[in-house]
Amino acid sequence: MSTTPATPQIQPAGGKLGILIPGMGAVTTTFIAGVEAIKRGIAKPIGSVTQLATIRLGKRTDNNSPMIKDFVPLSALENLEFGGWDIFDENCYEAAVHAGVLERTLLDQLKEPLSLIKPMPAVFDSNYVKRINGPNQKPKGSKMDHAQALMEDIRNFKESRGCDRLVMIWCGSTEVFHRAAEVHQSMEAFEAGLVASDPEISPSQIYAYAALKMGVPYANGAPHLAVDAPCLVELARQLNVPICGKDFKTGQTFMKTLIAPGLKSRMLGVTGWFSTNILGNRDGEVLDEPGSFKSKEESKLSALHQIFQPELYPDLYKDLYHKVRIEYYPPRGDSKEGWDNIDIVGWLGYPMQIKINFLCRDSILAAPLVLDLVLLMDLAQRAGMRGVQEWLSFFFKAPMTAPGLYPEHDIFIQLMKMKNTLRWMKGEQLITHLGLEYYD
Ligand SMILES: NC(=O)c1ccc[n+]([C@@H]2O[C@H](COP(=O)([O-])OP(=O)(O)OC[C@H]3O[C@@H](n4cnc5c(N)ncnc54)[C@H](O)[C@@H]3O)[C@@H](O)[C@H]2O)c1
């Protein structure tokens, strides 16, 4: 029987926390502008669990539900410092205007702090992101040269901004689909591959390697592999650094992981789930390319299968036909529209249908996840947690797991796991919702 590990000693959250972000596009600029607006009291952190959610402690009758941010020591928003890399050299204000997510009236109030954030030259490879290219790139060199240049950037950023700790979160474009190859099987092979510029090593993996070597936690907001490769998972464990990913759970997959557990909980069958959406931002343009779309498709498809468990419930789910389409449609910009048609089956096999039409805003949904992830990854590091942080699956479409385990996609199980991990960190009793009062 496994036992719960001892309550960790959590280091205090004092000093500055540097947030380093490869990719300063729509999500990143919406996140940074949002934090600056919240700090100034001109907006509220809606959608952020760390800023708004409470956590129940003890029995229901104890009436004790502090805010998460008062319960565990998290970095204050005033103590965050932002930096990043992009192939375009626009500063964060210009990039936010370009992304077109937030209104100019809001951005103009934040022009001063946003203009000060200028992207460092990126490590980029057009074999991995095909539809875009830009001038702000590191000089030519081997992949190991690039990893070292990134480590130098990290060092300089930390020193010049006076940061005590750092977290890196990938908000760059989705790279083309690829699986872990021979070069990803051991650190020896990976480092030799960096020196030889092995084509199987992607830019996001060079950033991940640089981060881990510098002891910086790495979260992956995109669906491609990045840190989800055996050698990097092992490196994170060896160096005591937390990692997590993949692919922020927003929009249509967020809806799926809300609805599918509910249908399953009532033992209703599903024969088909067709999802299509239109979006017109730069992310949509990159995803219009088949290789990048394949990364996204794999990530989006995995959730339903795991939730429905057709191998356990063949009568209900063995015939499920699941299809996901993404159409690049420039007029919509960041305002995505998603449609789902769900063919369900009830009592005696009678068919029914559910239609969902979600008019969402991609980056408005993703920005609070970035905030929560950077604060919780920093907490994890201060609590001495290392390797894959499965308790942060709540935020991801394709959660990374320890080797050999299947990912948990059900958002309600994920939420319980996240809150129980926070309770465990503070030595509080875990909440199982088991009502033993019946036996009193
Ligand atoms: N918005 C959402 O709801 C959501 C949800 C899940 C995942 N994501 C993922 O988050 C990522 C960011 O989305 P976005 O809407 O901000 O996209 P975006 O296109 O606006 O921004 C991505 C930025 O990354 C830059 N970039 C590409 N390769 C780079 C590299 N090697 N180094 C540095 N910069 C690089 C691009 O120039 C661009 O500015 C995408 O991978 C997207 O799939 C977004």
Query: What form results from the Cα inertia axes?
Result: globular
Figure out the total of helices. Answer: 16
The residue ranges in which pLDDT falls below 50 over 5 or more consecutive positions are none
**Cα separation of the termini:** 27 Å
- Structural category: alpha/beta
CATH fold name of the largest domain: Rossmann fold
What is the class of the largest domain in the CATH system?
A: Alpha Beta
β-sheet strand percentage:
15-25%
- Lateral strand order in the biggest sheet: 3-2-1-4-5-6-11
N to C succession of SSEs: EHHHEHHHEHEHHEHEHEHHHEEEHEH
| Small molecules bound in the structure, each named once | nicotinamide-adenine-dinucleotide
Largest sheet: 7 strands, parallel
How many discrete domains?
2
Roughly how many Å is the radius of gyration? 22 Å
CATH architectural category of the largest domain: 3-Layer(aba) Sandwich
The tally of beta strands, per DSSP, is: 11
